[in-house]
Amino acid sequence: MTTVEHAPAEVHRHTHGPGCGHDAVVHRDHVDYLHDGHVHREHVTDDGVHYDECDKCRCAHCADSCAQCVCADCDCPTCNHAMCSCNGCADACANCNCADCTCPTCVHAA
Hints:
By secondary structure, this protein is mostly beta strands. The protein has a domain of about 80 residues. The chain is about 0% helix and about 20% strand. It contains no helices and four strands. It is globular.
């Protein structure tokens, strides 16, 4: 069994989405919304929808979110800028759509 840590964000008075007024960033298999210095992602449960704070970069010298991290020497497995290691692919793991991807950090959106 895998335990998923959730960090609920403050209560929202609107639903994030196109036209909501917040910048959207595709981060791996979900969309993050940049909201007043925070990065929120939708979390759907049996009780409804709320927003969680998205992952923080795990690099020792970074204080940014994984959706926005630009550390040149980043080794965080959930950061958006990890590059696909497949032969012939030159895209970020967040954008990779190789049908036969073998990269251990790529997570293709369903």
